[in-house]
Amino acid sequence: MWYPEIKHFCPRAPVILVGCQLDLRYADLEAVNRARRPLARPIKPNEILPPEKGREVAKELGIPYYETSVVAQFGIKDVFDNAIRAALISRRHLQFWKSHLRNVQRPLLQAPFLPPKPPPPIIVVPDPPSSSEECPAHLLEDPLCADVILVLQERVRIFAHKIYLSTSSSKFYDLFLMDLSEGERGGPSGPGVPRPEDHRAHPDHHHHHHHHHHGRDFLLRAASFDVCESVEEGGVSGPAGLRASTSDGILRGNGTGYLPGRGRVLSSWSRAFVSIQEEMAEDPLTYKSRLMVVVKMDNSIQPGPFRAVLKYLYTGELDENERDLMHIAHIAELLEVFDLRMMVANILNNEAFMNQEITKAFHVRRTNRVKECLAKGTFSDVTFILDDGTISAHKPLLISSCDWMAAMFGGPFVESSTREVVFPYTSKSCMRAVLEYLYTGMFTSSPDLDDMKLIILANRLCLPHLVALTEQYTVTGLMEATQMMVDIDGDVLVFLELAQFHCAYQLADWCLHHICTNYNNVCRKFPRDMKAMSPENQDYFEKHRWPPVWYLKEEDHYQRARKEREKEDYLHLKRQPKRRWLFWHSPSSPSSSAASSPSPSSSSAVV
Q: For the chain, what is the domain count?
């Protein structure tokens, strides 16, 4: 130190010890080191001295001690003001006749610096999974848990799923809701069968196949997209991505799997369908026989364009480079999928950009229909047995939106071949929230929903996006309760270790922040719970508690030192005698009798 040299060469110069960069005590040292110049030596935590170390050095030297921070704008004025006081006091013995030096105070005590309260962590919700359209398309190519067989031209069959077809097409919805047990196999009449609409073919429909370019112009002003039903079968080959095979005798009703009385003829109900019946068919993936719905389509529907229509029904998208747009429009006309017909018209009119809005509207409508099917249990093929009841669901939707469900229903597990799945330690409210999220991609709360149980279930199902949404919902509820003066300390203690155990790390960080910023109150109300915390959490509390321990010690020392200073000042003033000098002015007349008594015109001064 330079203190001996200062005392040797400037013995009368006052000395003050100043501690700088006070803000490093609560700053993020990693961020500070990153912001410094590349070759600078990094600052280590053990190099930051506590306040008592500075006071010890100042006490040994007999000089005052102050702390400053330019970043926090603290202590700078205190240092200069008290340095001026020390300099004025050192001049008293040289310039004792100057009265203004008598009233200069000693260097004042410095109040400790309270670090700013750290802000609460922000709950960041990551982007939702981007495979909302890829998974349904993959499910169409690899028909896991298929329950519908669509037969085209008596020889090609395509496996599909009721829930996707019915939520995208009202025609398929009415078809699958038909009562196949009451009506006779040879007639379409009966309860539950909608009346068919009168679909008439346009008189000029033969020109659509032979004059394709002329048909595109005609498409923009015609009301019907019908094509000739007697199309050549040479151009019906489609992509090999979808599972297609020649139908066997079972599909024609003369095999061993035919169930009498469980079917209808649909030729008079809709031009798109010929018949529907329930049959035992072989699963395309497991090769096990199970009950499926076989729908025989009209012979004018070709496999290639029909696959494009199915892709639209699954994903809401239509490829602009499709070749058979006229046949796609024809199938859309038969199935009454008018949005798809409009998308074809936009592509032919070089306005394909307008199809994005149609796709958005498609997803909104299907989301509402899917929620309705979930609420009513329509077309469900699996039942979850929960702690407080059961809830019906749909395997295809679960497979396409959750890898965990896809592994369970598509792997070599018992759940893949059963209609009932037991979910222990799960309530209906939590499972319904998970299903609505998987179906719609949105988080929906309910009054009876337990946030922590939902986080546990979402973590079990490997749904990090749902975990983040639930964390955000939980933290929002806790903050609203705090604003309403509701005590949440007990809930935060319960949430902390559960959130850490079930990978809800953002909620755990928020709970740690709340406990650290209310450490004294929480310890006073829940001493046993705080002692029962894990060693890692206790170490975190000691390191990040607010106000920090060093501030509490400094505040206690400051209060004691201030009382001692006030006592010393009081005793010092009490020991000093009261000095008064009276200056009497002589009267103008020597014979005046005012010499023996003070005159009213006399003056006195007190210093």
A: 1
